[in-house]
Design brief:
Strand content: 25-35%
Largest sheet: 3 strands, antiparallel
Radius of gyration: 14 Å
Number of strands: 5
Number of helices: 1
Helix content: under 10%
Strand order of the largest sheet: 3-4-5
Shape: globular
Distance between the termini: 29 Å
């Protein structure tokens, strides 16, 4: 059984306690419905994403580009 409240179900930008997550909006912010890479990476250079049972790595390169590999 899921630990997610009904209020936030299906919306990854919501948490159970306070509603929408606070993300500073500026010229480099993600468009409506998008997620800023800074939100995903949280200060790290690489994260692992589980998708459909497979692991993927999202990395930031030395040139500040993103690479997604399986």
């Amino acid at each position: 059984m899921s630990d997610v409240s009904e209020r936030g179900r299906g919306d990854p930008m919501r948490d159970r306690a306070s509603g929408p997550l606070s993300v500073t909006r500026d010229a480099s912010a993600a468009p409506e419905g998008g997620i800023a890479s800074a939100v995903l990476l949280q200060g790290r250079r690489e994260i692992v994403i589980l998708h459909a049972g497979a692991l993927y790595r999202l990395r930031v390169t030395a040139n500040d580009k993103l690479i997604l590999t399986k």
